[in-house]
Batch of 4 targets.
Target 1
Amino acid sequence: MTPNAAWAAGPGGSRRGVSIKKARTARLFDMESGAIGELSQPGGPLYNIEVSNGGLITFPGGVPLIQGGVVIGALGVSGSLVENDRRVALAGAATIS
């Protein structure tokens, strides 16, 4: 087991795994994970996208990190209501300048 897998599997591992996938989703598409969720509804242009790329999380809480107009990474937050996860992720992203 890799160190990252061991960390994700530990206490609270489900939340960690979800937060990692939220961040990964935000970075793969350079947009908020919740926006992908809106586009991936039945009949939407990205329907079933969540099963691609090793699994994506398509609800709020993942945001790209942008510095100087360039995406430099992403932040994923999990552990509360998705609205709260998104608020915390946006607050964290706002610290990047």
Target 2
Amino acid sequence: MARVELRSECAVAATLDIVGDRWTLLIVRDLLFGGELRYGDFLASREGIPTNTLADRLRKLEDAGLVSRELYSQRPPRASYRLTERGRALGPVLDAMATWGVANVPGTRRLGDFSGRRRGPGAG
């Protein structure tokens, strides 16, 4: 796991440095619902993450110790991804965000729970 450069001692700022962009928590959401996923599974998500962004975020999540990567094919190299224990610990954060969204963003609804039980990509 790579050490994350802290811009301050604030825990919120440090957490945002790891998961605070537009796509990272959606990748975590998909892994919470889907368990082990392959690259194409993420691309099938409703939000339509660009391939270059997906590759970058998966690499950053792996470097931060939130996602593990396992090769299932050597030629061509292909990997599957799953959350580590640290990554699964983000479940309550996503649950709180979904609760807030339902209460404060008209037209949204809770599509699942964030306990880590399997569903499909893009189900949050």
Target 3
Amino acid sequence: MGVSPHRRAANHVMVSARGDVGSYTSEVLSALGRSRRVQLTVTHFIVALAAIAETDLIGTIPVSVVGTYGRRFGLATAPLPFDQGDASFVHLVAPRAGLMDAGLVWLMDTIERLVLEDPGS
């Protein structure tokens, strides 16, 4: 299963508690021969959620964080389009208001379809 060029082209927020330039997600993408365009690095997931809610950024956020705080920020989620180990670890997150954008809706639907698609078919 590949990572959509549209998703890679999106601007990402990355969470790094120490302010490092890399992350677990970046390492997984690198192993797949892919990368993402990180526009903003923050030190806390709550700050990442706030940034996503107020901008056109997307991010990979642990399900537990999105489940607890996503609704407060008006965010929508989609599964990642690549294997990052435990499938419940992270979701693609976008502002709920962004779902009024047909392009973002298409992107999230495409990602979901790709994630659920049987690679053997």
Target 4
Amino acid sequence: MSAARDGCILVLDCEVPEFIARAAAQAPLRSGLCLLLDPSPADQVLDQLLSLVDVVVPDATEAETSTDIAVDGPDAAMPGWHGRYETRPA
């Protein structure tokens, strides 16, 4: 992380062990990197992990799993997502 240049983005998913995901999510806080979370698999996303990320990019299935709202378009899951999860303030 220390070698990352300004403007770099760290992409994280939940297909790694939980302790690795948590450590990776905390690294951008120390280095100023942007953290993008691909919440896959959706059933393994940790609520406390979401508070550390800048951007969440779920696909339709992940959004439905995370929000319990049928996703029939790009904006369909956003109200449910924001009602349930808070990401790191910009």
